[in-house]
Design a protein that fits this description.
368 residues, alpha/beta, 2 domains, 4-stranded antiparallel sheet, 3-stranded parallel sheet, 14% strand, globular
C-alpha cells in the first residue's frame, strides 16, 4: 500500500501530512458505522521492510536518497501518538507476520469496533482472510479492505466478502515501478533485461562448468549431508550473489536443457530443492522428495531455472542459498497481476556487482 509520491518525496513534512490525511480519512469513513462514537480511538500500524522499501523508492527515482524515506517514517510517527510506522526488518514475511498477528488479535477483541486492512496488492493474505470472508464467520462485517493498487487476483475474490474502501488522495492506485534501464537478451527461452556484464557472467560460469557432474553424498544413515561436511568442497554454497547499483538481487542467466525442463514440469523428476540447490536437506531420509539423482551441470541449471519461477519476497535478498526468483522472467507482464513484486520487473542491470555476503565486499563486474 504505497503512499502517493508527493507525500514520500517531501520526507518528514510529507510523512506528517500523510499521517494526518490518513487518520482523517479513516475517521470520516468510521462515521458511517452504526456503532461509531465520537470518543472512539483510532490506532494505525504500518509495518514494512524499511531498508528495502527506501531502496525501491530510490531506484524508482521518487526520492534522491534513502534517508528521505527514513524522514518520511519519522514524520508519520510524529503525526499522532497512535500512529506508528515500524521497520519490521528485511527477513522474509516479516511485515506480513506482524500485520496478520495484529489483525487476528483485534478482530477477536469485542472491544474493537472495526478493523481496516491495507494490503491490496499482496496475494499472501488471501488464504489468511478466506475463512473470515464467509457469511457465517460473524466478523466479516467488522472488516474493511482498503484498495490502493488493484487487488491481487486471489485476494480480489476474497475481498468480496468484506466491506471495501479506497483513499485515492492518500495511496497510489498502482504499484511502484522501477525505471527500466538496459538492453534485452534471449535467455532460457524468455526475454529479460540484461547487460554485457551479466551476459559475460553467464558465459564465464558456463565455461567453468562444462561436463561437470553434481551429486549429493549421503551419510551412512541415509540422511542428506550438509555441504560443508561433504568430501567434495564444491558442494559448499558460494557466499557470492549478484546485485545492481541499487542493491537489488540479480539472477544470473542460465543455460538450460528445454527437454529436461519439460520432464521437470511433467512431474517425472520429483527433485528436492533443498538437497540439490541449497546443498543440504534438513529432512534427510524422511524427505518425500528425491535425493538420489546425479545431475549434470546443465540439468542442475535447468532445475534452478524452474525453481526461479517461484518468487522470493525480498528484492534485496542477500541469502546466498536462496534459490527462488528475484527477477520476473516474462517478456511482457501485467505487473499488477504478477506474483513477482513490481520492483522485480525491468530491473536496472546497466551495472552488475558481485557481492560477498560473508565479507560485505562489493566488486563491479566488467564485460570480458
Amino acid at each position: 500500500m504505497p503512499f502517493l509520491d508527493e507525500f514520500v518525496s517531501r520526507g518528514m513534512e510529507g510523512g506528517e501530512d500523510a499521517g494526518k490525511h490518513l487518520r482523517n480519512a479513516i475517521l470520516e469513513y468510521s462515521k458511517f458505522n452504526p456503532a461509531y462514537r465520537a470518543d472512539d480511538r483510532i490506532f494505525i500500524w504500518i509495518y514494512a521492510n524499511a531498508r528495502g522499501l527506501s531502496r525501491t523508492y530510490k531506484a524508482a527515482k521518487i526520492i534522491p536518497d534513502e534517508t528521505v524515506f527514513e524522514h518520511f517514517m519519522t514524520g508519520f510517527n510524529r503525526s499522532h501518538q497512535f500512529s506508528d510506522f515500524i521497520d519490521a526488518g528485511p527477513h522474509k514475511e516479516a511485515a506480513d507476520s506482524k500485520i496478520k498477528a495484529y489483525f487476528e488479535f483485534f478482530y477477536r477483541n469485542q472491544h474493537c469496533q472495526h478493523v481496516m486492512l491495507g494490503a491490496s496488492a499482496d496475494n499472501s493474505y488471501a488464504g489468511f482472510l478466506r475463512p473470515l470472508s464467509l457469511p457465517d464467520s460473524k466478523v466479516n462485517d467488522r472488516i474493511t479492505m482498503i484498495e490502493g493498487p488493484p487487488f491481487a487476483a486471489d485476494l480480489r475474490k476474497v475481498a468480496q466478502g468484506f466491506r471495501q474502501a479506497s483513499f485515492k488522495t492518500i495511496f497510489r492506485s498502482s504499484k511502484i515501478e522501477v525505471v527500466p534501464n538496459g538492453t534485452h537478451v534471449i535467455t532460457a527461452g524468455v526475454k529479460r533485461p540484461a547487460s554485457e556484464a551479466l551476459i559475460s557472467l553467464r558465459e564465464r560460469q558456463t565455461s567453468k562448468a562444462d561436463a561437470a557432474v553434481v551429486t549429493r553424498p549421503r551419510s551412512t544413515d541415509g540422511n542428506s549431508t550438509h555441504p560443508k561436511a561433504a568430501s567434495n568442497p564444491s558442494l559448499a554454497p558460494s557466499p557470492f550473489i549478484f546485485q545492481n547499483q541499487y542493491g537489488q538481487r540479480l539472477d544470473a542467466p542460465l543455460s538450460i536443457d528445454k527437454d529436461y525442463l519439460k520432464q521437470l514440469y511433467n512431474g517425472h523428476a520429483r527433485l528436492c530443492n533443498n538437497f540439490y540447490l541449497k546443498g543440504y536437506c534438513p529432512y534427510g531420509s524422511g524427505c518425500e522428495w528425491d535425493h538420489s539423482q546425479r545431475l549434470s551441470q546443465i540439468q542442475l541449471d535447468t532445475f534452478r531455472q524452474k525453481a526461479r519461477t517461484s518468487n522470493c519476497r525480498n528484492p534485496f535478498c542477500v541469502d546466498p542459498t536462496c534459490c527462488l526468483g528475484h527477477m520476473c522472467q516474462r517478456e511482457s507482464c501485467n505487473i499488477s497481476q504478477c506474483k513477482f513484486l513490481p520492483e522485480m520487473h525491468n530491473i536496472d542491470v546497466s551495472k552488475v556487482y558481485q557481492y560477498n555476503t560473508e565479507t560485505g565486499e562489493k566488486k563491479e563486474l566488467k564485460p570480458s
